[in-house]
Amino acid sequence: TGLLARAPLPAGDGLAVVGSSGGVAVLVTDLCQELGLRLPPLGEQTAADVAALLPPYAPAPTNPLDVTAGVSEAMTLGPLERIAHDSGIDVVLNVVTMLSGAGRTRQRAEGLVALQARIGKPLMSCWLGGSLAAEGTAALAEADLPYSTDLGRCLRGIEALCAYGARLRRPAAP
């Protein structure tokens, strides 16, 4: 909620998505294609850096990135931060599909808050765990960091943020 009011304006329209599910990666790709959102490929160095952060059984780094299920917070937040620093990426989305326990959801939220302070780009998270995500989304609300619990609404919000940023970057008509 509150993406347009709280997020910094993106420099462009390159969206990167990080999650822990291959199914979500496919769904995000389909929705982005439907909405006209651009998922640029990761830069060569970014992909190499991210691959070094992932478990050996993880798929090759792509955008969207599937870090695989059950990994540590460092294995999600580390690649997320590295991708956020890629020059071809303007907006970052973390799709949270499964976390075990309220402490873990709060830990993810706190990690996202800290990450937002370091990246200087819009960072959005979408929590798909229903009531299991309540502790994490409460922590994000406390920190005034935008989040969503609906993937379609989240991506439409990102689309609006990118369109607004593009409009503001256009020179005024004479």
Explain this structure to me?
The protein has 174 residues and is of the alpha/beta class. The chain is 50% helix and 11% strand. The chain is built from seven helices and five strands. Helix 2 (22-35) crosses helix 7 (151-169) and helix 3 runs antiparallel to helix 4. The longest helix has 19 residues, at 151-169. It is globular.
Instruction: Tell me the total number of β-strands.
Output: 5
Helix coverage percent of residues? 40-55%
Distance between the termini: 36 Å
Number of helices: 7
Radius of gyration: 15 Å
Structural class label: alpha/beta
Mean pLDDT: 89
Globular, elongated, flat, extended or rod-shaped: what is the shape?
A: globular
The strands making up the biggest β-sheet line up spatially as 2-1-3-4-5
Q: How would you characterize the largest beta sheet?
A: 5 strands, parallel
Pick out the low-confidence regions. none
Report the order of strands and helices. HEHHEHEHEHEH
Summarize the model shown.
The protein has 174 residues and is α/β, with parallel strands linked by helices. It has helices at 3-6, 22-35, 44-53, 73-84, 102-119, 134-143, 151-169; strands at residues 15-19, 65-66, 91-96, 123-127, 147-148.
Question: How would you summarize the topology of this molecule?
Answer:
Elements: H1 3-6, E1 15-19, H2 22-35, H3 44-53, E2 65-66, H4 73-84, E3 91-96, H5 102-119, E4 123-127, H6 134-143, E5 147-148, H7 151-169
Parallel strand pairs: 1-2, 1-3, 3-4, 4-5
Helix pairs in contact: 2-7, 3-4, 4-5, 5-6
